[in-house]
Amino acid sequence: MKVKADAKGKVAKMQGEGKCRASREREFIDRRKFGDRMMELKSTDNGMTKFKNEPFSVLIKSDRDLAAFRREYALKPARERRKAADWEYHSQMAGEIFNNALALGGQEGFGNSFWPAGFVALAIDPLYAPAVLTVGSLEYQLGRIEEAMKLFSTLTTLPEDEEDLSIIIDKAGDFLIDQDDYKNALALYCGAEKAYPNETLYINGSGYCLAKLGRYEESVEKHRRADALEPDNYKHLNDLGFSLLEAGKFDEAEEVLQRSISLAPPDYKFPRNNLIDLREKRAQRITA
Question: 191, 202, 216, 225: which is deepest, by most CB within 10 A?
């Protein structure tokens, strides 16, 4: 599957919160191919103060300005609404980058947006995927998990040809995985699977979460399905081999991992590392 390297959408990070991992042990796939620019928000921002007290779903009705945006653009054609949301989202990001550049040079910036990233864009277009991702991640970090999941689930209702949709859904899944929230990540991937059944990215995401939840047999079946949809994909084979390893099916796991190694470029280390792990576990079983 070919994906874009310049995908839109970012996961917003509250100041002083969240965690970053260099890797996830014997990871199924390199889930960090697309780097996110993490945004820090100051608690002194008035819009952020409002948001800390009320979720976006309330503010879009109670705040005069946000409600006005929603009413105004609800009357416009979908294409015009999308263009306005896209312009707002990226102009805010550009402003942040410009201010940061000025700050590095010891100069004062031109001021920050009143609202956190993605807010106005989401008010303009409630189906604008990058803003859904950004605002949803903020809701989650404020402890409003149900609000976050409602937003993330919106992504699985969008048309399959929505720009960068698979990458944005996977970023939402990655965000939940980074919070060790495998249950909600699984729910998101399963919803995406149901909506877009032939997209292997979601199948592999479900398989990863199932393995983290200790549901190894189910994980194996997910990865078998991904392999069937895209045969001889070395990443899918590595994922399948890893899930077989975790399920204790050492002989088949070794065969599958060897196939992955034979098809993978030399710098793809996961199947080799998993094969080393497999042989160590097999030796432990023999000596036990």
Answer: 202
CB 62 within 8 A of CB 54: yes
Q: Which one-letter DSSP state was computed for residue 76?
A: S
Q: Which residues of 163-200 are buried (b: 16+ CB within 10 A; e: fewer)?
A: ebbbbbbbbbbbbbbbbebbebbbbbbbbbbebbeebb
Global model pTM greater than 0.70: yes
Sign of CA dihedral 102, 107, 109, 110: negative
Which is it for the CA torsion 22, 24, 30, 36, positive or negative? Answer: negative
- The ranges of the chain annotated as CATH 1.25.40.10 are 199-288
Neighbours of 225 (CB within 10 A): 18
Q: What would the pLDDT profile of 61-92 be if each residue is shown by its tens digit?
A: 999 999 999 999 999 999 999 999 999 998 87
Of 148, 47, 131, 51, which Cα lies nearest the Cα of 84? 131
User: Which run of H or of E encompasses 92?
Assistant: helix 78-104
First to last CA, the chain: 42
